[in-house]
Amino acid sequence: MKPKNISTFLISVIVFVSFACNLPATQPNNEDLVLTQAAQTITASASTATPTVAVSATITNTPAVTVTPSPVPCNAASFIADVTTPDDTAIKVNTAFVKTWRLKNTGSCTWTSGYQLVFDSGDIMGGPASQQLTAGTVAPGQTLDVSVNLTAPASAGTYKGNWKLREPGGQTFGLSTGAFWVQIKAVTEAAAEWPTIEQGDEGPEVYAIQFLLNAHGAAPALVPDGKFGPLTQGAVEDFQTDKGLSEDIIVGPETWQALIIQAAQGKTGPEVRAIQRLLRDKFGYTLNVDGIFGPETKNAVKDFQSDHGLTSDGIVGPKTWQKLINE
After folding, report:
1. Which of 209, 230, 227 has its CA nearest to residue 277?
2. How far apart are CA 297 and CA 278, in angstroms?
3. CA angle centred on 78, ends 72 and 79, rounded to 5°
């Protein structure tokens, strides 16, 4: 080979090698080219797209209302009944009496011997400031008869004393409405001889009231049945209004004394029926309740008076009426 040709050959080799060094080491295939172009297209679209605002809805769930029952207090009581001495009982001045309430333990704690009955306010009427409530135990839901010894005051009038209970720790409690009470009418000795009759009562005394109301012109006239019902109650109220008495619709000492009518042989009318009914039904005398004060009624009255330490004159005056009504 000629030198010139050698030089040309060498230059060609050098150029080729230089060009080869600038080429990628590995050539991409057709799939690689497609994926690369897709990625570039997505990137370009993302960079130029309008941003999308995401709207989210918030849902609020209302929680269910849970009703929690009120806790039962440890110490609580409710009133069941007046066992003795109902409100406005007439009691002779300076006379001892016993007041008994029936109470129910409505708390969650058991009443024990450490619990006390305590005076709260009003008229103490000779009662203690406090006394033991029970010597045993009274569980929740059980009842207890609570008694206290009292004395009617020396002066006539209406008196009321309020009482509560006290637990061993010293806290007092009563009913849900407050204290429970005793209320009486202290009366003179003469007035004390008359009973107190009110709606719901039955018996010979109610018959007497109905007959006497008719004798005083009750309108409409009552049909005596021995039961103190609404019609009798209305007639009593009207009578008290007419006589200027306290309109308490209770036949007590004042109303009795206004109702009674003196009767003797020869008298006729509803007041005689009242006497005959009392003698027959309460004391066992054999009499016709005919409203005629004849010899048989007079003899029965005289026997009654003799048996009860009264003057045996056969005349039914205030003292005889008292004995007929109150015995």
Report:
1. 209
2. 11
3. 175
220-261 confidence digits (pLDDT tens): 999 999 999 999 999 999 999 999 988 889 998 889 999 999
What count of other Cβ atoms lies within 10 Å of the Cβ of residue 131? 14
Tokens 């400031």 appear where? Answer: 129
Distance CA 322, CA 194 (A): 6
Domain ranges of the chain: 77-190, 204-326
pLDDT one-digit tens code per residue, 278-321: 999 999 999 999 999 999 999 999 999 999 999 999 999 999 99
Rounded Cα–Cα distance for residues 70 and 18 (Å):
98
Buried b or exposed e, range 231-242, using 16+ CB within 10 angstroms: bbeebbebbbee
Judge whether 158 and 253 are in contact, CB under 8 Å: no
Looking at the DSSP assignment, which residues form a beta bridge with residue 292?
268
What is the rounded CA–CA span in Å between residue 4 and residue 7? 5
Whole-number Å distance between alpha carbons of 1 and 176: 136
C-alpha pair distances (Å), 19 with each of 12, 25, 165: 11, 12, 117
Q: Which fold does the domain 204-326 belong to in CATH?
A: Muramoyl-pentapeptide Carboxypeptidase; domain 1 (1.10.101)
Cβ atoms 302, 265 nearer than 8 A:
no
Q: Give dist(CA 184, CA 141) in Å, integer.
A: 30
Architecture of domain 77-190: Sandwich (2.60)
Whether the model pTM is above 0.90: no
Rounded Cα distance, 220 and 213, in Å: 10
The CB-based long-range contact list for 243-252 (8 Å cut-off, 24+ gap) reads 248/88, 249/198, 249/199, 250/88, 250/196, 250/197, 250/198, 251/196, 251/197, 251/198, 251/209, 252/88, 252/90, 252/185, 252/194, 252/196, 252/197
Asked if 181 contacts 148 with a C-beta cutoff of 8 angstroms, the reply is: no
